[in-house]
Amino acid sequence: MSDPFQKALHATLPMLKKIQHGIKPAPKGSTAALKSLRDAALAKRRITKPAPQSTSGTGATTESRLPAKPAPQNTPGTGVATESRSAAKLPPASRPSAPSGGGRWESLRAEVLACVKCPHLVSSRTQVVFGVGNPAAELLFVGEAPGADEDELGEPFVGMAGQLLTKIIQAMGFERSDIFIANVLKCRPDMPPGKSGNRKPKPAEMATCLPWLGEQIALIKPRVIVALGATATEGLLGETSPLRDLRGRWLEFQGIPVMVTYHPAYLLRNQSLSEKRKVWEDMLLVLEKLEKKITAKQRAFFTKPAA
C-alpha cells in the first residue's frame, strides 16, 4: 500500500474504535422532535395524496383516505365564498326564468348593444339601453326612448318618470324584477348642438329599431303589453290617434293584447286625481287580463272618498 493510503487508514482508526464501542443515543428531546417531524410529514403526504385513479380494465376507483372537501360557492350578491350545504337545507334559488329562446337572448343582447344602424345616434349616445327585468315576464311595459338618466345608466325608466312607474308596478302587486321594461328606440335621440333635454324619436328611427323590440317580444312571449304614451304607441302599433281615444281598450301587437295608457311623465305634469285614476283603470284592466286577484283597496285607488 502507498504511504498516503496508510496515512488515511490510520486517520480513520479513532472513528472505527468509536463505532465499535457504540455511540451515545441522541437526547430524548431530539428524538421527540424527530418523531414530530416524521408524523407531520406523513400527515401532509396523506392530505396531498393524488385523486383516486380508475383501476385499469375494471372501471372502479380506489377510495382516498380523506374525503374530498366540497368547493366553496359564492353567496349571491356578496362575492363571499361559503361552503356548500346539503341540498335539502338550501331553499330553491329565486332566479328569473330564462326566455324560451335560451342562448338567443344573450346573443340578441350583444347584437343590440353593438348596433350601429343609426350613425347619428351612435355618435351621441353613451350606451345602448337594451331593457331590464324578467326575460320570461308575463307583463311587458314599452316606452319611447331613453332619456339622459337612462342613457347614462343603461337602464330604462330610472328618472323621476321611472320612479313613478315603479310605484305603479308595485301597486299592481309586482316588482320591477317580475316584469320587463323596454323602449321602442334603444338609443337616446340626439339633440341639436347647444340644446339640452330630450326630443321625440323620429318615425324613421323607431322603424329602424323596432325589429330589435320585436325579437325581444318574440322571445319573452308576454301575455300583455302596456304601451306608455303616444310615441311608444306610434312606434309599436303605428297608431297616431289621440291617446284619449286609444287608452282603456285593447289593441294588439303580433297577437298579444296591448293596453295603451298615459306616460308616467304626463302624470308628473298633470297631478289631477282624475288623470291618475285613468291610468289606474287601465292597469286594473291589465290585471284582469292577467287573471290576477284585485283587492277592494286596489279598486279604490285614486277615487274620491265618499261624502
Mean pLDDT: 79
CATH superfamily of one domain: Uracil-DNA glycosylase-like domain
List SSEs in N-to-C order: HHEEHHEEHHEHEHHEEHHH
Secondary structure: helix percent: 40-55%
Radius of gyration: 37 Å
Shape: globular
Structural class: alpha/beta
Structure, briefly:
The protein contains twelve helices and eight strands. It is α/β, with parallel strands linked by helices and 307 residues long.
Report on the architecture of this protein.
By secondary structure, the chain is of the alpha/beta class. It has a domain at 106-299: Uracil-DNA Glycosylase, subunit E. It has 12 helices and 8 strands. The strands form 2 sheets. Strands 3-5-4-6-8-7 form a 6-stranded mixed sheet, sandwiched between helices. A hairpin with a 6-residue loop joins strand 1 (73-74) and strand 2 (81-82). Helix 3 (103-113) packs antiparallel against helix 7 (203-220). The chain is globular. It starts with a helix and ends in an 8-residue tail after the last helix. The model is unreliable at 19-31 and 44-95 (pLDDT under 50).
Keywords:
307 residues; Uracil-DNA Glycosylase, subunit E; single chain; globular; two-stranded antiparallel sheet; alpha/beta; 43% helix; six-stranded mixed sheet
Chain-wise SSE layout:
Layout: H1 3-21, H2 28-47, E1 73-74, E2 81-82, H3 103-113, H4 119-124, E3 132-133, E4 139-143, H5 148-153, H6 160-171, E5 180-183, H7 203-220, E6 224-228, H8 230-237, H9 243-246, E7 250-253, E8 256-261, H10 264-269, H11 273-289, H12 296-299
Parallel strand pairs: 4-5, 4-6, 6-8
Antiparallel strand pairs: 1-2, 3-5, 7-8
Helix pairs in contact: 3-7
